[in-house]
Model the fold of this input.
Amino acid sequence: MIQVMPSPAPHPGPSPGPHRVPRHPHAWWIALGLSQALVAAVWWQWGWRLGLPLMLASHVPFLWGTLRPGSRLFSPVLTRLPTTEPVVWLTIDDGPSDDTAAMLDLLDAHAAKATFFLVGERARARPQLVREIVRRGHGIGNHSHGHPQSVFWALGPARMRDEVGSAQAELIDISGVVPRWFRAVVGMANPFLAAALRGHGLARVAWSARGYDAVAADPATVVARIERALAPGTIVLMHEGARHGRNVDTLQRLLQRLDALGYRTVLPESLEGAGEVAADDDVATATRG
Ligand SMILES: [Zn+2]
Done:
């Protein structure tokens, strides 16, 4: 009953490698329908003492899929690059900001590359920074239009389409580049995100290492947390523009530690088309050691 339609332009064909656009964004309706039919049958047959707990339990997976950043319940989500090389994908959320220019200089100084997950409204306010990110060879990703962090997980289908679509249009208009990756606000998805991503050929990416630098100010503490999770293919979550003002210092320390530990930064595009990735593999678990 799942309708499979060809991928819309400008992204024809299958998603290669780790970039996986949601293919069945409405499959969860079927799971919901079946589970509630089962609940109704049990309730009718054995009464509320069984039916009520079962109904509550049947909602747990949907909450889990919404609130857990790495959950694949509603859509594929990349949490790790499929590689055995000592490389990491550095991702920097929430820009552009007052930190962006300094971060670009730091990345250049370490010959490092990153993907900046940009907020549409902030990009519109500072288009020259967006173009500078691209000019220096970094990636840009979609991190919603308005960054509605307290309500993103609860957005309905229309609002979700708008958050994804407006940011996408803004970033394309400013940079001429079509973002291919989406990072959910505060990492949370919900049942309506996959359909919004699919129309734009966007794949969702979470992370495998973070130091809570959006709130934690001390660079040493943040980088130590990231270091504990470091492994080949780790996706590192960083932020810019945090109120505590230490994000640039933290990036500097992280880049120093990556150099010292022999890790390079890569963008996922460098791994695609290499023929080493099975398209149907669960890439998050394939390389977990
Ligand atoms: Zn964010």
Q: What stands out?
A: The CA atoms of residues 73 and 148 lie 22 Å apart. The mean pLDDT is 87. Residues 93-94, 143, 147, 185 surround zinc ion (CB under 6 Å).
